[in-house]
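Intended use. Records like the one below are meant for learning the mapping from a protein sequence to its folded structure. Do not use them to infer anything beyond what is encoded.
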Amino acid sequence: MISLLLLDLSIPLKNPVIIFSVVLFIILFAPILFNRIKVPHIIGLIISGMIVGPYGLNLLSRDSSIVLFGTVGLLYIMFLAGLEIDLAEFKKNRNKIIVFGLTTFLLPLVTGTLASYYILGYGFLSSLLLASMFSTHTLVSYPIASKYGVTRNRAINMTVGGTMITDILALLILAGVAGMSKGDVSPAFWFQLGFSFIVFVAVVLFIFPIICRWFFKRFDDSISQYIFVLAMVFLASFLAELAGVEAIIGAFFSGLVLNRFVPHSSPLMNRIDFVGNALFIPFFLISVGMLVDVSVLVNGWGALKVAGVILIIALASKYLAAWITQKVFRLSADEGLMIFGLSSSHAAATLAIILVGYNIIVGETSLGEPIRLLDEDVLNGTILLILVSCGVSSFVVERASKQLALLQEEETPEEADAVGDEKILVSLSYPDMIADLVDFGIMLKGKRRAIPLFGLHIVTDEDQKHDSASHGKRILNKAVAHASSSENALLPLTRYDANISNGITYSIKEQHITDVVIGLHQKTDHKTFLGPKVENIVRRVFETIYIYKPAQPFNTLTRIVVAIPPAASDEPGFMHWLGKVVSLAKMNTMPIHFYGSVQTIKEIKSILSRKATTVEAEFSVFKNWDDFLIFSRELEIDDLFVIVSARKGSASYLSQLEKLPSYLSNYFQDQSLILIYPKQLESGINMNNIEQADSTLIESLSDKIGSLSKAARYLRKMLRE
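Structure written out for the chain above:
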């Protein structure tokens, strides 16, 4: 009772436990309540901040703790924007993206500057800074497009690429205006700003990747990796401030650098998304709402006038930019609508620009009150813009996504059917390879949640004598937990069989598996490179098989090199494995270098030109497989070497493929490898070949001979005694 009396419950709340509890309940219930009335959760969190903030019920004050978490949330949003940008798509469609990016930047900038200067009566610097806010946009509604599976559409790719251009240009204007408002605007100021910015970009883009690759190669602890990512984000933000630009530019560039080190389907990416969306970003949105003075909007004609001009200019100029882009590049009406929907929402960079302008003091009134570069009317008008634009964006993107999804389904029904039939199985034998193999299986699966992923462990008769069943259970439990960390479900399978190859083969047939992942241990040599078990599986299973040897973490690899035998395009599984390799490159932001015959390269170029997926690809003619060791000179240590092999009797089979185990074990020991056996039609294999005889009989005879040999040795020992 005494402790209750001593508890300070005065308003605004001061007890840190109560403050944090209130914020957590807002983060929990605001999205639930606003989703019921079809309002995006981002708006719900901002309105909640308005209600509990100093200009609402005054439950919470915008103290240092709220500012700290809000700043972290803002940097986190900009970091995620850089992390999710498709760099390969930007390189391929850079001309279209540049045109759209400049259009959606310059049009709002020019119209916004004129409107602010002549209609609202602000000075030139204030008008320029306010107009740069109109130019930016945040991809708030991108998850809606992702939910409908239309993120590969060219309109979405152009908008995402344009985001990078608009944000960088707007933030550079912000840096210039902030510097000019503080005094010296001589040529030396611009030279210093330009030089320091170039140094900052060079450090982040060239030195940060070296540090990241070194760290990820040596530390695989999930907590350490996440802390490292956060440390790099805030280090880049600090370096940006040292260079004289805003911290959000540093966060954005750190996202660009870490883009290739954080695969989008990895557990690390899941943790980044989870922590940001669960804590930091909601804190930021609540802190934004706490800035809003509702009474100014209600009672002040000036605030309403500013808010009206901001809303009209921001939405109209973005719509006009999207319409011009649609007409210039002959996009459909739904694609034009999608561009407008994604580019019309204002949040992170918009608020950053306004807050910086609001905090710049350019003088004092006669009463000693500060004169700000952007006043409270602009601040409140911007908050209203965030509320309205996010609402408009979400509803427009929802409508456009539905139409594009229907159109996409009509155009590619056969591809959807093929995806629905896919099933991936990961064979788990080595405890130290569980994470690598499961991650590889998840990457093959991609973002398509409907594709089942199985984890298989075989317990043989010999294993049961040594109680290895419990060991297998631990392996599967670890695999399930690892898959769950990236929000992927792995279905565990334990099979008891006479030998491992039999168990894997019949599990594949029973579950109708289409893709099989088998780990290749790093201790293999040229005599046991694949081993009789794997060779047996390759002979008896006609689905696509991936034999994977991870020499280093996948996210530290820089390029995929693919060696393809002649006539590979004649194989039934050619399109399937090619799609998987391209998807791996796309997901991990890696270029691909294809080595193959002229005909194969022509086929691959034709397929890639028709695919919506964009990947950076190079091609080299390679036909002489007797000179396979040329790859030992072409490959770098950070390359992933993919060798497309073939089963005996198939269209692309070469006798030189028999030498692969010797070559790979002697000359590529430290290389990350994937050996692919493409899907075959059972009737396409020459079953008359003696080496294609029934392996079950061979294994059975081998087991019997082994048992007889043991009995003979035991009998001889007894006779000697």
